[in-house]
Amino acid sequence: ELDTKSSVPKFIDERWKNGTWDLNMFVKGGKMDWDGVINAEARRRKFLELYPEASTNEVRVLFRSSIIPWWAWLMRSYLPEAELVRAATVGILMTYIVDALTGLDMVGQTGNFICKAGDFVTVIGVILFRQKKDFNNLQRLADEATLYDKQW
User: Fold this and answer.
1) pTM of the predicted protein model
2) Distances from the Cα of 6 to the Cα of 3, 18, 36, 47, 139, angstroms
3) What is the mean pLDDT of each successive set of 10 residues along the chain, which is 152 residues long?
4) Which residues of 16-43 are buried (b: 16+ CB within 10 A; e: fewer)?
Protein backbone atom coordinates (compact mmCIF):
# COMPACT_ATOMS: atom_id res chain seq x y z
CA GLU A 1 0.00 0.00 0.00
CA LEU A 2 0.91 3.60 -0.28
CA ASP A 3 0.63 6.28 2.40
CA THR A 4 -0.02 9.55 0.54
CA LYS A 5 -0.53 11.80 3.60
CA SER A 6 3.12 12.79 3.79
CA SER A 7 5.26 14.14 0.98
CA VAL A 8 7.40 10.97 1.09
CA PRO A 9 5.47 7.79 0.30
CA LYS A 10 5.69 5.02 2.89
CA PHE A 11 5.50 1.28 2.38
CA ILE A 12 2.60 -0.18 4.36
CA ASP A 13 1.93 -3.87 4.88
CA GLU A 14 0.56 -5.27 8.14
CA ARG A 15 2.96 -8.22 7.85
CA TRP A 16 6.04 -5.93 7.75
CA LYS A 17 7.03 -5.31 11.37
CA ASN A 18 10.18 -3.74 12.81
CA GLY A 19 12.21 -4.11 9.63
CA THR A 20 11.30 -7.69 8.78
CA TRP A 21 8.42 -9.87 7.71
CA ASP A 22 6.34 -11.43 10.49
CA LEU A 23 6.63 -14.98 9.19
CA ASN A 24 3.79 -16.14 11.46
CA MET A 25 1.43 -14.17 9.24
CA PHE A 26 2.47 -16.25 6.23
CA VAL A 27 1.41 -19.59 7.69
CA LYS A 28 -1.49 -21.17 5.79
CA GLY A 29 -3.01 -24.48 6.78
CA GLY A 30 -0.18 -25.12 9.23
CA LYS A 31 2.50 -24.70 6.54
CA MET A 32 4.75 -21.78 5.74
CA ASP A 33 3.68 -20.01 2.54
CA TRP A 34 7.12 -19.20 1.14
CA ASP A 35 5.54 -18.03 -2.12
CA GLY A 36 3.68 -15.41 -0.10
CA VAL A 37 6.93 -14.27 1.53
CA ILE A 38 8.67 -14.04 -1.84
CA ASN A 39 5.74 -12.11 -3.34
CA ALA A 40 5.56 -9.70 -0.41
CA GLU A 41 9.31 -9.03 -0.50
CA ALA A 42 9.17 -8.52 -4.27
CA ARG A 43 6.39 -5.95 -3.81
CA ARG A 44 8.37 -4.18 -1.06
CA ARG A 45 11.48 -4.02 -3.23
CA LYS A 46 9.48 -2.81 -6.22
CA PHE A 47 8.01 -0.05 -4.05
CA LEU A 48 11.51 1.04 -2.96
CA GLU A 49 12.63 0.95 -6.58
CA LEU A 50 9.76 3.25 -7.56
CA TYR A 51 10.11 5.49 -4.47
CA PRO A 52 13.78 5.46 -3.41
CA GLU A 53 13.19 8.49 -1.19
CA ALA A 54 11.05 6.23 1.04
CA SER A 55 14.16 4.34 2.07
CA THR A 56 15.55 5.75 5.30
CA ASN A 57 17.88 4.67 8.06
CA GLU A 58 15.27 5.28 10.74
CA VAL A 59 14.12 1.66 10.74
CA ARG A 60 16.77 -0.95 10.00
CA VAL A 61 15.87 -3.64 7.50
CA LEU A 62 16.56 -6.92 9.26
CA PHE A 63 14.95 -9.23 6.70
CA ARG A 64 17.35 -11.41 4.71
CA SER A 65 16.05 -13.33 1.74
CA SER A 66 18.53 -16.10 2.60
CA ILE A 67 16.04 -17.41 5.18
CA ILE A 68 13.83 -18.56 2.32
CA PRO A 69 14.71 -22.20 1.54
CA TRP A 70 16.43 -22.91 -1.76
CA TRP A 71 13.64 -25.26 -2.85
CA ALA A 72 11.08 -22.45 -2.46
CA TRP A 73 13.07 -20.38 -4.95
CA LEU A 74 13.30 -23.33 -7.35
CA MET A 75 9.57 -23.91 -7.23
CA ARG A 76 9.06 -20.41 -8.59
CA SER A 77 8.95 -21.45 -12.22
CA TYR A 78 8.53 -17.92 -13.55
CA LEU A 79 11.83 -16.78 -12.06
CA PRO A 80 14.47 -17.02 -14.80
CA GLU A 81 17.13 -17.98 -12.25
CA ALA A 82 15.05 -20.95 -11.12
CA GLU A 83 14.55 -22.12 -14.70
CA LEU A 84 18.28 -21.93 -15.40
CA VAL A 85 19.21 -23.81 -12.22
CA ARG A 86 16.55 -26.45 -12.87
CA ALA A 87 17.58 -26.95 -16.49
CA ALA A 88 21.27 -27.12 -15.60
CA THR A 89 20.59 -29.62 -12.84
CA VAL A 90 18.56 -31.88 -15.10
CA GLY A 91 21.19 -31.60 -17.84
CA ILE A 92 24.05 -32.55 -15.54
CA LEU A 93 22.04 -35.42 -14.03
CA MET A 94 21.24 -36.78 -17.49
CA THR A 95 24.89 -36.47 -18.51
CA TYR A 96 25.89 -38.65 -15.54
CA ILE A 97 23.15 -41.18 -16.26
CA VAL A 98 24.10 -41.46 -19.94
CA ASP A 99 27.78 -41.70 -18.96
CA ALA A 100 26.96 -44.57 -16.60
CA LEU A 101 24.85 -46.37 -19.22
CA THR A 102 27.04 -45.89 -22.29
CA GLY A 103 30.51 -45.11 -20.98
CA LEU A 104 30.60 -41.96 -23.11
CA ASP A 105 31.83 -38.80 -21.42
CA MET A 106 30.15 -35.44 -21.95
CA VAL A 107 32.11 -34.66 -25.14
CA GLY A 108 31.56 -38.16 -26.52
CA GLN A 109 27.82 -37.87 -25.94
CA THR A 110 27.47 -34.99 -28.39
CA GLY A 111 28.20 -37.24 -31.38
CA ASN A 112 26.03 -40.19 -30.37
CA PHE A 113 22.46 -40.51 -31.74
CA ILE A 114 21.13 -42.26 -28.63
CA CYS A 115 22.55 -39.51 -26.43
CA LYS A 116 21.01 -36.83 -28.64
CA ALA A 117 17.66 -38.62 -28.42
CA GLY A 118 18.00 -38.76 -24.63
CA ASP A 119 18.74 -35.04 -24.52
CA PHE A 120 15.68 -34.38 -26.67
CA VAL A 121 13.42 -36.44 -24.38
CA THR A 122 14.88 -34.68 -21.33
CA VAL A 123 14.28 -31.21 -22.77
CA ILE A 124 10.72 -32.12 -23.75
CA GLY A 125 10.17 -33.55 -20.26
CA VAL A 126 11.43 -30.40 -18.58
CA ILE A 127 9.21 -28.26 -20.78
CA LEU A 128 6.12 -30.40 -20.18
CA PHE A 129 6.58 -31.08 -16.48
CA ARG A 130 8.52 -28.07 -15.26
CA GLN A 131 6.07 -27.31 -12.50
CA LYS A 132 5.11 -29.64 -9.69
CA LYS A 133 1.42 -28.92 -10.28
CA ASP A 134 1.79 -30.22 -13.84
CA PHE A 135 2.18 -33.71 -12.36
CA ASN A 136 -1.11 -33.25 -10.50
CA ASN A 137 -2.79 -32.06 -13.71
CA LEU A 138 -1.45 -35.11 -15.53
CA GLN A 139 -2.78 -37.37 -12.76
CA ARG A 140 -6.24 -35.77 -12.98
CA LEU A 141 -6.18 -36.17 -16.76
CA ALA A 142 -5.28 -39.86 -16.42
CA ASP A 143 -8.05 -40.33 -13.83
CA GLU A 144 -10.54 -38.67 -16.16
CA ALA A 145 -9.41 -40.76 -19.12
CA THR A 146 -9.84 -44.02 -17.16
CA LEU A 147 -13.05 -43.02 -15.35
CA TYR A 148 -15.30 -45.28 -17.42
CA ASP A 149 -12.93 -48.23 -17.07
CA LYS A 150 -13.05 -47.88 -13.28
CA GLN A 151 -16.84 -47.89 -13.25
CA TRP A 152 -17.03 -51.40 -14.68
Assistant:
1) 0.48
2) 7, 20, 28, 16, 53
3) 64 89 93 90 87 76 85 65 69 82 79 78 72 64 63 50
4) beeeebebebbeeeeeebbebbbebeee
